[in-house]
Amino acid sequence: MANPEGEFPAEQRLEQRLGPVLRRRDQVKPGTTDQRLLDTEGGDSEWVHTDPWRVMRIQSEFVEGFGALAELPSAISVFGSARTPVGSPEYEAGVRIGHALVDAGFAVITGGGPGAMEAANRGAREARGVSVGLGIELPFEQGLNPHVDIGVNFRYFFVRKTMFVKYAQGFVVLPGGLGTLDELFEALTLVQTGKVTRFPIVLFGSAYWSGLIDWLRDTVVGGGKASERDLLLFHVTDSVEEAVALVTKEVGR
């Protein structure tokens, strides 16, 4: 029992339980966890930049992403450049792909930005399907395009990339830059190593992708850095109908 000064007898202070942790003898710490939480005054905010705190933020992003996307119908992730001009042939192809994927029974997931991403989201929305945008915190603000119905913004690229793969049954990749290539090669690596199965990858726009494919075949495979069968991990087409047919066939729809 506490004395008038609020101290506990010495024999009771020889054992302390802090949640699931038991401390005894000289490992007993003063106060309680609640006391340290509630008595802490503002000032030192460096703790929010420590790795343990980052782990909690990373965990929270996974929880929010899983919670937002867990009930999606079958979906296809569509990638492409944020710099694709509205009204260009590539933009119009993105709109038609988004629309056709919804007609085939898929939701459409993009990075949520402008350009080719906006085009696919627009096509999905115009077809009255589920249009999803997974945004990313960048030094230059993009924001989610107006055709996104379900949007989630992420701090960490690797959390966002997990969502693209986990909640999609395949990728359609429109012409794009480094971010598009990052997602493409991430998916190719996951399929090549068996981390994901039955995951079709369709490259749309043969003129754009031909140089990359030539390099993969002649330099990477030709130099023994990859296998000839790795060239079968993706398909190339200029047809919206064929792109949708390829992902539909491979996922068993």
Task: Describe the protein's topology.
Blueprint: E1 15-18, E2 21-24, H1 33-39, H2 51-69, E3 75-79, H3 89-103, E4 107-110, H4 116-126, E5 131-136, E6 150-154, H5 157-166, E7 171-173, H6 178-192, E8 201-204, H7 206-221, E9 235-237, H8 240-250
Parallel strand pairs: 3-4, 3-7, 4-5, 5-6, 7-8, 8-9
Antiparallel strand pairs: 1-2
Helix pairs in contact: 3-4, 3-8
Q: How would you briefly describe this protein structure?
A:
The protein has 253 residues and is an alpha/beta fold.
Keywords:
single chain; 253 residues; alpha/beta; seven-stranded parallel sheet; two-stranded antiparallel ribbon; 8 helices; 9 strands; 15% strand; disordered N terminus
Descriptive report:
With 253 residues, this protein is an alpha/beta fold. Helices cover 41% and strands 15% of the residues. It contains eight helices and nine strands. The chain has helices at residues 33-39, 51-69, 89-103, 116-126, 157-166, 178-192, 206-221, 240-250; strands at 15-18, 21-24, 75-79, 107-110, 131-136, 150-154, 171-173, 201-204, 235-237. The strands form two sheets. The chain has a seven-stranded parallel beta sheet with strand order 6-5-4-3-7-8-9, sandwiched between helices. Strand 3 (75-79), helix 3 (89-103) and strand 4 (107-110) form a beta-alpha-beta unit. Helix 3 (89-103) runs parallel beside helix 4 and helix 3 (89-103) packs parallel to helix 8 (240-250). Residues 1-8 have low confidence and may be disordered.
